[in-house]
UniProtKB/TrEMBL annotation, chain A:
Keyword presence, Transport: yes
Name under which the protein is recorded: Iron complex transport system permease protein
GO molecular function, one term: transmembrane transporter activity
Entry membrane topology: Multi-pass membrane protein
Automatic annotation (TrEMBL), chain B:
Record protein name field: Iron complex transport system ATP-binding protein
Membrane topology per record: Peripheral membrane protein
Span of domain ABC transporter: 2-236
Family matches, as Pfam families: ABC_tran (PF00005)
Compartments it resides in: Cell membrane
Keyword Nucleotidyltransferase tagged: no
Gene Ontology, cellular component aspect: plasma membrane
CDD domains linked: ABC_Iron-Siderophores_B12_Hemin
UniProt keyword annotation of ATP-binding present: yes
Record-linked InterPro entries: AAA+_ATPase, ABC_transporter-like_ATP-bd, P-loop_NTPase, Siderophore_ABC-ATPase
Keyword field: ATP-binding, Cell membrane, Ion transport, Iron, Iron transport, Membrane, Nucleotide-binding, Transport
GO biological process terms held by the UniProt record: iron ion transport
Length: 339, 252
């Protein structure tokens, strides 16, 4: 057997970063919790704690619409951000996420096709179709990536955005021919105003998948080091790729069906976490979940109050916020002269 | 012992490895030299199971590298290729910890931690241990990756052009560390290297390749002759003896 490197002193101080890492996380958790509570009490109909206690009708609205909406925001925000994180690790590219890889657009195409051929199909069938389509679309994207020689960090997302645009164009064309443009709009733009009890529960599955990412975190980190290193340390690279892409496809498919596309979230959130916490997935996932939930809940609050009593889709707010943060990231990279 | 039997690799019409058979003995430093396109890196990459051969087989201590499970191989043989363009934001220590992955699957034991600290110390990385990889210079990063494969604690360590991007001082330091990995840690190190003088000064054996074939194997004394080098590189090389090491002079 191989000779052991001989040197004493294991670095004890680094082994249990426990409390030092847990405190900021607890603070972030409290912040997301506070935002969620705020989200519960913002909206067209006036609901206060006092009314909740006195008025059974207010209580009914609260449980029927407000609580599901906030839960949906928290779950979808965390899951879409984790989907972005997984894709960035698997492709070794910081600019890849479901909406820059054709994943989300494929999901929308999948639902459209089901709506077209099986108009009365139950939600489960639509979700399954969206997930399968998202999987195929992402697979196509990865297949194209394998065939192109130049994999500079900006070419990869460009390929994905182009693929997404082509799939999106096909989708729009079909929708146009069959008078389904309006339904298409619902899937293409993330919106939580229609969320009610009985119409969001699928998102729990998506939240569960975000937790799964934590369970395979080390494998994802190793995959992020590249295929060579992954194979060198004995990781089954192909399986990890397949599992990762599967998780991303299901998260994207379910989210697009239930609330519509949520662009930029999977791009901005993991990058902000990477800048501060780094790319160690096991350490990053809790932060990505919290930040993703927090950002989405906040954007949703903005979308509800900015034109009171009307709402604008949260996807639009996300687009503006996401683009701004994304530009900042790009400029910051250049300022640091990084690759 | 690493044994190659009739190893063949073809890219389209281009045969990169032509039925190479070779034995690399256990222990010491083995350098693979040869001109560009000789098939050196391809051969190393196949031995390290990062690339599939089109024919022939590789065994490491009688284990077929293609049939043995990846995790088992990863405890016996490690390979590091030239640095890839994407730099993960991991700290040096975290990177080195992933060298223990084949042994611990991410749950590090006290012994794993000992290996990590030892590898960091071996490559003088303690002051940089908590820095992020993307904040280091190319040479420092190279050292971190080498620490990772040493931490993997395999009998065989394959390094593809470990001196790439290193200046003279760091190149010498790297070669000393490779030498000492063989001498004090008992590793069998196989490197692909362009600088024949580094190969001459630090290796126990040299494998010379050309056009997808192994044309010579031997000690530095046997390989560092004008005749052999002429045959391998198609270049006139004068050989001088400096401080007990054969040095090739080929600059003009």
């Amino acid at each position: 057997m191989a000779t052991t490197l001989s040197r004493p002193e294991p670095g004890d101080r680094t082994r249990s970063p426990g409390l030092r890492a847990a405190l900021p996380l607890a603070a972030a958790f409290a912040a997301v919790l506070a935002l969620s509570v705020l989200s519960l009490f913002v909206g067209a109909s006036d609901i206060s704690v006092q009314r909740l206690l006195e008025d059974p009708e207010a209580r009914e609205i609260f449980l029927l619409s407000r609580v599901p909406r906030t839960l949906a925001l928290v779950l979808a925000g965390a899951a879409m951000s984790v989907a972005g994180l997984i894709m960035q690790m698997l492709t070794q590219n910081r600019f890849v996420e479901p909406s820059t890889a054709g994943t989300a657009e494929s999901a929308a195409l999948g639902i459209l096709l089901v709506t077209l051929f099986f108009p009365g199909a139950p939600l489960t069938v639509k979700i399954t179709a969206a997930c399968v389509a998202a999987l195929l679309g992402t697979g196509l994207f990865l297949g194209i990536l394998q065939r192109i020689a130049l994999k500079s960090s900006l070419i990869v997302p460009l390929v994905g955005i182009m693929l997404g645009a082509v799939i999106g164009a096909v989708t729009t064309f079909i929708a146009l021919r069959f008078d389904l443009l309006q339904s298409l709009g619902v899937w293409q733009s993330g919106d939580f105003s229609g969320i009610m009890r009985g119409r969001y529960e699928q998102l729990w599955l998506v939240g569960l998948l975000a937790v799964t990412a934590y369970l395979i975190a080390d494998r994802l980190t190793v995959a992020g080091l590249g295929r060579d290193i992954a194979v060198n340390v004995g990781l089954d690279h192909r399986t990890v790729m397949a599992v990762g892409v599967g998780i991303v496809a299901v998260i994207s498919g379910v989210t697009v069906v239930v609330v519509g596309m949520l662009p930029f979230l999977g791009l901005v959130v993991p990058n902000l976490v990477s800048m501060t916490v780094g790319d160690h997935v096991r350490r990053g996932v809790p932060w990505v979940c919290l930040l993703g939930s927090g950002v989405l809940v906040l954007c949703d609050i903005v979308s509800r109050v900015i034109r009171m009593p009307f709402e604008i889709p949260v996807g639009s707010v996300l687009g503006v916020v996401g683009a701004a943060v994304f530009l900042y990231m790009l400029l910051r990279r250049n300022a640091h002269g990084a690759r | 012992m690493i044994e190659l039997t009739d190893l063949r690799k073809v890219y389209g019409d281009d045969t990169v490895l032509r039925d190479v058979s070779l034995r690399i003995e256990r222990g010491g430093v083995t350098s693979i030299i040869g001109p560009n396109g000789a098939g050196k890196s391809t051969m190393l990459t196949i031995i390290g199971r990062l690339l599939k051969a089109d024919g022939g087989r590789v065994t490491v201590d009688d284990l077929d590298t293609e049939r043995t499970p990846g995790r088992e191989m990863a405890k016996r043989l490690s390979i590091l290729r030239q640095e890839n363009r994407f730099t993960t934001r991991l700290t040096v220590r975290d990177l080195v910890r992933f060298g223990r992955y084949p042994h611990s699957q991410g749950r590090l034991t006290a012994e794993d931690h000992r290996h990590v600290e030892a590898a960091l110390g071996f490559l003088d990385l303690e002051p940089l241990a908590d820095r992020f990889l993307d904040e280091l210079s190319g040479g420092q990063r190279q050292r971190a990756y080498v620490a990772m494969v040493l931490c993997q604690d395999t009998d065989y360590v394959l390094l593809d052009e470990p001196l790439n991007n290193l200046d003279m001082k760091h190149a010498v330091a790297m070669m000393r560390q490779i030498r000492s990995a063989a001498d004090t840690l008992g590793k069998s190190v196989v490197i692909v290297i362009h600088d024949i003088n580094f190969a001459s000064a630090y290796s126990d054996r040299i494998v010379a390749m050309r056009d997808g074939r192994v044309v010579h194997t031997g000690t530095p004394e046997e390989i560092m002759t004008p005749e052999v080098l002429k045959e391998v590189f198609d270049l006139d090389v004068r050989i001088e003896e400096v401080g007990g090491t054969r040095v090739g002079v080929y600059y003009r």
